Amino acid sequence: MDERKRYTYRFTVAEDAIDFNGHVGNVTYLQWMIEAATAHSESLGWGFEQCRKLGGTWVAKSHVIEYRHPAFENETLLMETWLEEIGKIKAVRRYRITKARDGSIVCEGETEWIFVDSETMRPMRIPQQIVEAFGRGKS
């Protein structure tokens, strides 16, 4: 994979991410993944507004998250995301969150995103400009 198409950033776990078990709550990981997908798309020039100008938007079809190690308040984490594949109407995005201190994997995830017409919410072909920006065709 073309490494420049990966998007990575570092952040610190905030107090409001902690659940009743004393570690990051499940829903928070999903929120972080959606934030990472949005930031990655924006960094390539294809955020929400740019997609809407082409008449489309992304909706999630499915999410899969596999938890490996818990994360705690004030820990520094690295979020990495990339498109595993992009097809005619669907893109599969992968995520990996690791601990900055030792590289251990906190969780990995995958979202299947469908590109839809922003008016009808029916699937539409992903514009070629977007496919080229992410640099991934269906393998």
TrEMBL record:
The keyword Lipoprotein does not apply. The keyword Hydrolase applies. Gene3D superfamilies: Hotdog Thioesterase (3.10.129.10). Keywords: Hydrolase. Pfam families: 4HBT_2. Transmembrane segments: none annotated. It comes from the Bacteria. Belongs to the 4-hydroxybenzoyl-CoA thioesterase family. This is Acyl-CoA thioesterase. It comes from Hydrogenimonas cancrithermarum. The lineage of its organism: Bacteria, Pseudomonadati, Campylobacterota, Epsilonproteobacteria, Campylobacterales.
